[in-house]
Design a protein that fits this description.
GO molecular function, one term: hydrolase activity
Organism: Arenimonas terrae
Protein name: Serine hydrolase
CATH architecture of the domain at 97-318 and 347-352: 3-Layer(aba) Sandwich
Keywords: Hydrolase, Signal
Pfam families: Beta-lactamase
Structural class: alpha+beta
């Protein structure tokens, strides 16, 4: 839930603490798999899980609660770190956390129970439930559920994380925030993760049930299933029992930005525990909540959502070749992952009270590593190696992903980085000459060469699985920043406005900085032409117009869409 021009925290090198013990336990589990082809015993798995947590989390910092189950058997239940740094309160496995976008799975199922009851149909237009919503007659319920509606996600609107995010809003007020913003694309034409779509899912639940969306989930799902610690994050009772949330900037944990929990709405406003999430996984995936045909539609991506494996509030994929389902969550102060491995009936719930975890703490990666170990097929630990910057230079270049996207490899400060079109630049960690690891600890790039030893492409192994996707190397030169005369930069300086959002463009060094009002800091941009500037750390571009004469506007391009800010005339 980050807004354009808000810098992401740079990934750090993978830590090396206790790596020998981790490697030993991983080797023991792998040996057991090879010799007996059976999953580990609970005691052995618990030692492995405890070591992972000990390696990744300090006892005096924000931490994590974890539950891993195989069927009805608890393989590991534990916690590490602090629930409240100021009061020195340690985390416990049963603590209540904000779960962020894991909420979407509950909201999707809530709406699907209305489908089962005959009150909603997946191919119904949104206008059946919200007659006044612009373009609602062209948007289906299914498109809301699988992020293909094209509606602008409100968390992509500049300035949303400033003052407005702290206000308590009704569903109607939430809809007013984005209803008149132009869509990103026509309904069904593309896929883009969309928090507005799930606010609308909540609104449809309310229209079809006659109850607030969260009360409907309480009565229909949480109470019948005995999920006593799951509920709406804006309820006073839920607030009283939550752990504190933090953000780690520059290595120091600080209290997370305060927000009104009315605003995440059905896209992210629930709180829960690892124990309740395990109850949920069992009920949902064992057929206790939805009709079989409805559940099958929920976990089967269709249309443009097939490109990313997204069902209805559920991400599809695999762990070590075994089909897996789940959802991740991120919200100020918190980070979460709920995973279900089909067949072996494995549940992994990971809840963290830090919105910016380090590479070995990221919830998706931790859940994947635990799930693989529970299968008896653990991921090996990968050790960083030193590679001379001169050697790294041979891999620099632009690699073609598809017709619209490339990945650019560039050495920055002696380290390899990757920058995909419209995404933020990421640091990579070398684990061998020609092999680079992403910060998730699984996804990696392996460079490809021809018979003469010339670099011809890269092969990306997403989350460390499969045969990888090849991106051939192009002959295009690396885009290089240019230095512009100061008078050219001064032509662009000023205040620009889009509705209630305001962006200030200033000179910074040889380039510019962009600062959206209310955000903690400006983002640097370097010149690629007299009117185009890039900010790789957030994956954004500034596009000034016109090219000659007085500048009238600047386009902020990020994540495939462009928002236009009009220049505010300087006071006379």
């Amino acid at each position: 839930m980050r807004t354009p021009c808000q810098p992401a925290i740079a990934a750090k090198d993978l830590p090396m603490r206790n790596i020998s013990l981790t490697l030993a336990l991983a080797a023991a589990l792998a040996s057991q798999t090879a010799s007996a082809a059976t999953p580990p015993e609970p005691a052995e798995f618990a030692r492995y899980a405890e070591t992972l947590l000990t390696d990744a989390y300090r006892p005096d910092a924000p931490g994590v609660a974890v539950l891993v189950m195989r069927g009805d058997e608890v393989l590991y239940r534990g916690a590490r770190g602090e629930a409240d740094l100021a009061a020195d309160v340690p985390l416990k496995p049963g603590d209540v956390f904000r779960i962020g976008s894991v909420t979407k799975q509950f909201a999707a199922v809530g709406l699907l129970t209305l489908v089962d009851a005959g009150k909603v149909a997946l191919d119904d237009p949104l206008s059946n439930y919200l007659p006044d919503y612009p373009g609602g007659e062209k948007i289906t319920i299914e498109q809301l559920l699988n992020h293909t509606s094209g509606i602008k996600s409100y968390t992509d609107i500049p300035g949303v994380f400033d003052g407005p995010i702290r206000r308590d809003l009704t569903t109607t007020q939430m809809l007013d925030y984005f209803r008149d913003v132009p869509p990103d694309f026509a309904p069904g034409a593309a896929w883009h993760y969309n928090n507005s779509g799930y606010v609308l899912v909540g609104a449809v639940i309310e229209a079809a049930s006659g109850q607030p969306w969260h009360q409907y989930l309480d009565k229909t799902l949480f109470e019948p299933l005995g999920m006593k610690h799951t509920g709406y994050g804006a309820d006073p009772a839920a607030i009283a029992h939550q752990v504190k949330g933090y953000i780690t900037a520059g290595g120091t944990p600080e209290p997370a930005q305060p927000i009104s929990m009315t605003q995440p709405h059905a896209a992210g406003a629930l709180v829960s525990t690892v124990d309740d999430l395990a109850i949920w996984n069992s009920a949902l995936h064992e057929g206790k909540v939805l009709k079989p045909e409805t559940y099958a539609r929920m976990i089967t991506p269709v249309g443009k959502a097939m490109d990313v494996g997204y069902g209805f509030g559920i991400e599809t994929g695999a762990v070590r070749g075994t089909p897996a389902l789940g959802h991740s969550g991120g919200i100020p102060g918190f980070n979460s992952q709920l995973t279900y491995v089909q067949g072996p009936d494995i549940t992994v719930a990971v809840l963290q009270n830090n919105e910016t975890p380090g590479p070995t703490q990221e919830s998706r990666g931790l859940a994947r590593r635990l799930a693989a170990a529970a299968l008896g097929d653990p991921y090996p630990a990968m050790t960083p190696v030193a590679v001379d910057a001169a050697v790294l230079k041979q891999y620099e270049g632009i690699y073609r992903v598809d017709e619209t996207a490339t990945r650019t490899l560039r050495v920055v400060d002696g380290k390899m980085t990757v920058h995909r079109t419209d995404r933020a630049r990421e640091d990579l960690v070398a684990i061998a000459d020609g092999t680079f690891l992403y910060s998730d600890g699984f996804s990696r790039i392996e460079m490809e060469r021809d018979a003469a030893g010339k670099v011809t492409g890269m092969r990306l192994f997403s989350e460390g699985e499969g045969e990888g996707d090849v991106a051939p190397r192009t002959n295009d030169p690396l885009p290089m920043p240019i230095t512009l005369p100061r008078e050219t930069l001064e032509r662009l300086v000023g205040v620009y406005r889009m509705k209630d959002e305001e962006m200030t463009i200033s000179i910074e060094g040889d380039g510019l900085s962009g600062h959206i009002k209310g955000q903690p800091q400006a983002v640097p941009f370097v010149a690629m032409s007299p009117t185009r500037f890039t900010g790789d750390i957030v994956g954004a571009e500034l596009l000034f117009a016109p090219e000659t004469g007085p500048v009238r506007s600047v386009g902020l391009r990020q994540w495939g869409s462009t928002m236009t800010f009009e220049r505010v005339p300087a006071p006379e």
